[in-house]
Amino acid sequence: MSAGMTDGLSLVALAAAIRDGAVTSERATQEALDRLDTTGRTFNAVMSLRRDEALAQARAADAARRRGETLGPLHGVPLAHKDLFYRKGEVSTGGSLIRKDFRAETTATVIERLDAAGAVDCGRLHLAEFALSPTGFNGHYGHGLNPRNPAYCSGGSSSGSAAAVASGCVSAALGTDTGGSIRHPAAMCGLVGLKPTWGTVPATGVMPLSHSLDCVGPIARNAKDAAVLFDAVALAGTRHADACDGSVRGLSVAVVGGYLRAEVDPVVEKALREAARRLAELGAVLKDTAVADMNAANAGAHVLMTVEAATLHRRWLAERPGDYADQVRARIEPGLFYPATRYVEALALRAPTTEAFLTEAFAGADLALVPALPVKVPTIKATTEGSPQDVAAAIAAITRCTRSINYLGLPSIALPCGEDEDGMPISLQLIGRPHTEASLLRAADAFLRTTRPA
Please, what is the Cα angle at 280 between 12 and 226, to 5 degrees? Predict the structure, then answer.
């Protein structure tokens, strides 16, 4: 391959090219680092690069290949991840001023698993401060910018992960999701973002926001790439990539109305109807269902997130309140005032609330189809300027169809299903029953094969 020929390669294609000797890991890594240092910084996707360490990893991968050794399915593939994932001895900011010099004392389990799979770690990517913004807002390090159009939100809080993948800097990246923070940026940047079943991917060594809600998952350009990265970090023995066979025949999909479609923009609604029609053409069996409200799940998610976040941040809030952006501090502080009984109640109601949702929304179906974003991708201006009420409303609309899914602990995937009149992505969300990531990835793969290469 000639210079720059790794540009635009999918994760699967790049792994194959390195495995087959068409390109060296060192070359692929050098190109990824150069893209991150130029294009990535243009879209404010990068927090820090591990240039020397990554190139050393890549050279070791090439030497291993010459000896006939294979380090794993991601042998020599350059990746980068949200700046919440610890590597021992290295700075992990969490997108904050408070942790701008924090050096981790341990390495995240998922990073260790990626090392074992042979991946090259190029660095850490931009995020909202302490992972607390669905838009990509960061009052200290600047807003995440959308590669489709930098006037628009990149989505958050895994803003840099999506921007780096969408702009072609890396083929995939890990993010975290507490109320939509993988799915929002994937949706706004036209990518695939998988939020696994809670607990499926270990969060050890990842800075928490809310340990009862946090999930680690992949952001990628297509479903097969997302599946390969997911398999590398999930529970041992998973082979979700094998499910991406281009077929949805036999899968039943509930098209959910009611609360989850009550405030959908007409342009988004049209795209969702077309997506449902296309799934039916591909062989999926559709059924119409409706959910009256999500009040219990939304309230439970709010209590768990704010109380657990406030517990982590209590000392910093007291000692360093000025080092938080106002928007972030205002989201954490309510957790200081909930009684312990309310928190325990929110935990106790998770199982019955989940069971009720599965009965009502799925009605026996394998998957449920809802919006990823019920609104068009907003501009940065719309989510940062104007009256506090208008800004709050614009931000709240983004999370309407995602935050409750974390409380329910269910897996879900965001994937593109069209564009609005401004050329910005429209995305759908498929929700699964616990541990049905294979079905979600299978459906996403089949759907996207009708609009983009697998």
Answer: 20
CA 80 to the chain's CA centroid: 13
The domains found in the chain, sorted by start residue, are 11-243 (3.90.1300.10), 252-296+347-448 (3.90.1300.10)
Write out the catalytic residue numbers: 82, 157, 181
Tokens 């913004």 correspond to 133
Q: Which residue has the tokens 């974390």?
A: 406
CB-side neighbour CA atoms (13 Å) of 395: 25
- Residue 370 sits at the vertex; the CA angle it makes with 194 and 10, to the nearest 5 degrees, is 30
Within 222-265, where are the H helices? 223-233
**CB neighbours of 320 closer than 8 A, spacing ≥ 6?**
98
User: Distance between CA atoms of 179 and 65, rounded to whole angstroms?
Assistant: 41
Neighbours of 224 (CB within 10 A): 27
Residue-wise pLDDT for 233-252, tens only, equals 997 667 899 999 999 999 99
Does residue 260 contact residue 227 with C-beta atoms inside 8 Å?
A: no
Q: Tell me the pTM.
A: 0.97
- Least Cα distance to 124 among 177, 47, 32 occurs for 47
Per-residue model confidence as pLDDT tens digits over 108-136: 999 999 999 999 999 999 999 999 999 99
The residues near 256 (Cβ < 8 Å, ≥ 6 apart) are: 289, 290, 291, 361, 368, 369, 370
From the CA atom positions of the chain, what is the Rg in Å? Answer: 21
CA nearest neighbour of 175 among 167, 190, 185: 185
Query: To the nearest 10°, the Cα dihedral for 83, 89, 91, 94?
Result: 40
Per-residue CA distances from 106 to 19, 94, 96, 112 (Å)? 30, 15, 19, 10
